[in-house]
Amino acid sequence: QVYVSESGGGLVQAGGSLRLSCEVSGRTVSSARMGWFRQAPGKEREFVAAAYYTITTYADSVKGRFTISRDNNKNTVYLQMNSLKPEDTAIYYCAAQIRKDGAIWSADSWGQGTQVTVSS
């Protein structure tokens, strides 16, 4: 069983930066398909970024601003978020062993989420 736990959310002004962390247990991050998702109030959960094998991929809305990375020594996945916008406000979730079936994302494990609020 893989467990993930996020941290690093908070309140930031537009244009600022935050780094989210996702500690993983039960599987090495180097061999896991890891992803970040977010859910804004009143909206569906949406894909943000993923890292698996040597591939990283991003939602168009965050491309060029967010970076997903892995620290194999700490078994942790990060999401560096720069040039934040008010529309980035959401609960951010880390997920392990993600997969996509058509347009639907799923995962074996989800974290509890961390709140990111970007003020204008």
Q: What would you say about this model in short?
A:
The protein is mainly beta.
Tell me the number of helical segments per DSSP (H or I, 4 or more residues long). 0
Structural class: mainly beta
As residue ranges, the low-confidence spans are none
What is the makeup of the main sheet?
7 strands, mixed
Kindly state the percentage of residues in helix.
under 10%
Annotation, overall tally of beta strands: 13
Globally, the shape reads globular
Name the average pLDDT: 96
Output the radius of gyration.
Answer: 13 Å
Could you describe the 3D structure shown?
- It is a single chain.
- This protein is mainly beta.
- The chain is built from no helices and 13 strands.
Task: For this entry, give a set of tags.
mainly beta, 120 residues, globular
How does the SSE layout of this entry go?
Layout: E1 3-7, E2 10-13, E3 18-25, E4 34-39, E5 46-52, E6 55-58, E7 66-71, E8 76-81, E9 90-96, E10 99-101, E11 104-106, E12 109-110, E13 114-119
Parallel strand pairs: 2-13
Antiparallel strand pairs: 1-3, 3-8, 4-5, 4-9, 5-6, 7-8, 9-12, 9-13, 10-11
